[in-house]
Amino acid sequence: MRQVLPAVSALALMVGCFPALAQETPNIDAARMNESVRVLASDEFEGRAPASPGEEKTVAWLAEQFRAAGAEGGGPNGAFVQVAHLSRTRQNGPATVAAAVGGRTINLERGPDVLVSSDRPTDHITVTDAPVVFVGYGATAPERQWDDFKDMDVRGKVIVVLVNDPDFEAPEGDPVAGQFDGQAMTFYGRWTYKFQEAGRRGAAGVLVVHETAGAGYGWSTLQNSSAAPKFDIVRANPDAERAPFQGWIQRAKAEELFAAAGLDFAALKDSARSADFKPVVLPGLTLSVDFGQVADRVETKNVIARIPGSERPNDTVMYGAHWDGYGVGTPNAQGDKIYNAAVDNATGVAALLELAHAFADGPRPKRSVVFAAWSGEEAGLLGSTYYAANPVWPLETTVANINVDSLLPGTEIDPNVVVIGKGKNQLDEILARHAAEAGRTLIADPAPQAGAFYRSDHFPLALKGVPALFPAAGFTGASAASRDYVQNRYHQPTDEWNDTWRMDAAAADTALIYQVGRELADSDQWPEWNAGAEFGPARDTSRAERR
Predict the structure, then answer these.
(1) How far is CA 167 from CA 187, 292, 433, in A?
(2) Between β-strands 398-403 and 468-469, what pairing exists: parallel, antiparallel or unpaired?
(3) CA distance 246 to 490
(4) What is the phi/psi pair of residue 545, to 5°?
């Protein structure tokens, strides 16, 4: 039977675990935290969708709460708000997608066969008779001695890539087994990476071959969301970073195209598991794509607060959590159409507010502590991506980024602390030490194949080299409560607060990550990525800039 710690207040927990630091005991108030969740997840906030009346209410309320907690504005020019400028594209009319080979045309229907969209801020996308190249998993990972592109120039070509990592389906004993962390998806396995790499290399387009096991979800999940607006940050030169089109293709349809070009898709897929794999041009086959879209710009807001450091104010310890939800959407069977987003992620924002109270009420930290309530996470990590491209506080002097995304209500404190991305950097060691003093143990993500490390707001800053810590509870499936939440409430109108909620356990989790941030804020530590982590090179660059 799983051990469960008795219900205690966060205050008592921390006093008992850190008697030498009694005067620094964090002021984490479970009742106040619960009230913050109640307010944010109420129907009044309309599901907190970006660029909606719900955003206006949320941003104003958060700024007021951070100010009341004792923090100052941490955004540009001392404001509580950083405006993020976003590019939005929406489908406008049908799409024509067709392959030509051997004098015949193979039409691909948007929806059942293929899904295409574009992040380029233009009203029409046309690609005509582009050569098609299979590039395996599309990964360029020098730290793992892997390059799927070799010397192939893919400019002006459509690339077809496999979903997930090269070792995802590798049998035991295969030379590639474990080279990309086995079942724990790396960034190279994410479709977002494959899209970005295609844009960086000047490809005319990119299609990811969909397979349910590798993607983690069925085709219907992709198809059902394909008509929703797509968002990106406003880029100075989007054509240099985004391919004209991107999307997915059903495996059966990919097999048909490969066969028409005289190739065996299954055999080529098997060959892609080797580091010796070289890109393969589909002989005589070209692809044409044509569709319209509406392109415009919108604004959304990150809310940023700060406690200035007393000795090294230019060093920053950051906590982050996203404030946004899905707003008002499709009604469920009960007619409820407000996606209140209580666990995901009103709980994380409530934790941010409590952390602000704790640092404001305790001794002044030597380093500055920043609390970032991000916008647009559910639309693709937009607020944090904008910040990473336009940092208010330099990333090279950002010591660490501690992410809070989805805490579960309850009074029983789980002795296991789930860490998403466990083992990637030295922050784990700090958390493990404080957890042990509280009678708790770190465990890895029980569902690493879902790639959760690459799907929350610490990630855009990690790409820039900032070490990230992501302790999580809500969507990991590590407990019965977590499994129930994922199955019955995750991203549904049923993710809502009720008057039976208590936040004792979430407050204890918040007190624990306070101790990590407090240690970093009062020391001269610079945590690093562990050997082999894909973000190490970026941190090496920022370290050189810091010096």
Answers:
(1) 13, 37, 33
(2) parallel
(3) 27
(4) -65, -35
Q: Cβ contacts of residue 206 below 8 Å, gap of 6+?
A: 138, 158, 159, 160, 161, 194, 195, 198, 243, 245, 246, 247
Using DSSP, state whether 73 is helix, strand or coil.
strand
Structure tokens, 225: 């969301």
Fill in the amino acid letter for 273.
R
This prediction has a pTM of 0.84
State the maximum Cα–Cα separation within the chain, in Å, rounded to a whole number. 80
- Distance, in Å, from the CA atom of 488 to the CA atom of 523, rounded to the nearest integer, reads 43
Q: For tokens 């070289």, name the residue.
A: 278
- Taking the C-alpha atoms of residue 200 and residue 30, their distance in angstroms, rounded to an integer, is 46
- First CA to last CA distance, the chain: 51
pLDDT tens-digit readout, 312-350: 999 999 999 999 998 887 788 888 889 899 999 999 999
Tokens found for residue 543: 């370290």
Residue 10: is its pLDDT beyond 80?
no
pLDDT per residue over 194-242, tens digit each?
999 999 999 999 999 999 999 988 898 888 878 888 889 999 899 999 9
